[in-house]
Give the backbone structure.
Amino acid sequence: MDQEIKIKAVPIDAQRCRFTVDRPVLKDRAVFFPAVGRAAGSPLAEALFALPGVATVLVSHDTLTVTRSGYGEWPELARQVGAAIRAQLQSGAEPVSASALASMPGEDEIRTRVEHLLETQINPAVASHGGWVELLGVQANNVFLQLGGGCQGCGMADVTLKQGIETLLRQEIPELGEVLDQTDHAAGRNPYYAQSKK
Amino acid sequence: MPRVLLLLPTTTWRAEALLSACGRLGVDATVGTDRPLVWADRTPERVIALDFAQPAAAAETVAEFARARPLAAVVGADDETTLLAATIASRLGLAHEPVEALAAARDKLRQREVLGRTGLMVPRFTLCRLEEDAAAVARRAEFPCVIKPRRLAASRGVMRVDDAASLGGAMRRLAALLASPDVGACGEWAETAIVESFVPGREVALEGLLRSGRLRVLALFDKPDPLDGPFFEETLYVTPSRLPAETQSAIADTVERAAGALGLGRGPIHAELRVNGRGPVLIELAARPIGGLCSRVLRFGDGVSLEELVLMEALGMETSSLTREPRSAGVMMIPIPGAGVLERVEGREDAERVPGIERVVITAHPGERLTPFPEGSRYPGFLFARGDDPASVEAALREAHRRLRFILAPVPAPADLAMERR
């Protein structure tokens, strides 16, 4: 049974690693554990926080995002996280407690917080380049954005998204899952920085 | 986890590929750009504005940044930023290519001067001033010849000239291009051009990595469309090459010797060569990876991108086990369909349905003015294909291109533009 559970670990940045499991861990739901104190009663989170260096855990359907404290190499920790996930799935027990699920901001709350950040910080910033960012929707804790105006088709659109927007959103809303760009950049009529040459 | 400084011009195609590569490798990325971005104040650990034209000042800015956030490598995205990356890495005490070697590779004149002394087969060339008497230049040239600017990329401004009578027109055309606002060329290099003998033969492109001066060939691309002029717009790249093994070996040997002669010893290189009965002739060598979106055609190991490979090399990680996938692959830089304003592209779904086609990427946007070569260089899109053999990949790319239709409107006359402004 162990061998049948496939887990792919992909580091996102120095502190975070995403584990994608070949089956749902928490079907159609998401829950964020910002500290070990919130893991009580949630066996999967308890097991993960028992590993050295685990700082936060985000479980979203078939994906877990684990944040570590300090610096170090992922491979050993990733192996241990994978083993904990497999053990949890094999046990058949509920991975997280009802109270943990209840503490997770719902889609409406995430939508409100993202829209607030767009309105107060992000759009005022990109407006200076004739751009704007729109929230298309929230599914579980995943956010779907669309860039427009000068941001649409801009050579720096990915820098804006990954280095700016996503960084700000995660600082303010650590429960976020994916931040996904739904923009048709080829349709951008007036990119602020047009891509060119090699 | 290491932090890498990515030097990304604001006009680059490569931001997405490099940032995604950092994400997949678990590397923290800071982006250095040539113009201030709106995020510099809000996420200062992630974005830093640098004056690309002042390398020493940029290096000091980065050194100040790195005091609080140490950097493990500095990686450029194109010729200009590769040179800057070496300057910054030198200031930080990080491993880097010699700045002089990169400068020699960047300037096509200096590159030819160095390579001309090596005994390698390179085109015979002469330097001309663009305001010089064309007849005097013609006396030094060998026809047919190719006139090319010293720095522009993507074959922009490169023209074949078959006889002395045509040379003056080509020189004036190149001078006008270099003076145009969107090129913004200035300095001595923009007042001169290289006139070199036209080299007949099949053209290939080599993608490689240098380590301690030894070349590791990542991919050798055939360019199945003849590139005989009058302009040199790229179209098809297909790998693996269908050339005989001994020819491929001679190509690799030529590139390694040329890189060594220039003083290059580590990092990515992209070389263009012609192959004819006399063997491989090096046309150009650049100390950077393949440009545009073309790197998407390459996969290594179980799906590692070229950008990941370049970053791993920059970080001193072991990559020798990562070889290109066994399947054939190809990319078509979609030829510029003519001069005009793009209204729409038809047939995209038809093109995507061609067996073997993996992606159809249209990069030109509606309302964009398309300018053919040699003045233009911005391809309207890219086609990507994979298959069991190079021939099927080439056929898929040609068929997909045949199904695309670019609908253009005439370029507005100056009077129309004035009306629009009112």
Chain A has a mean pLDDT of 86.
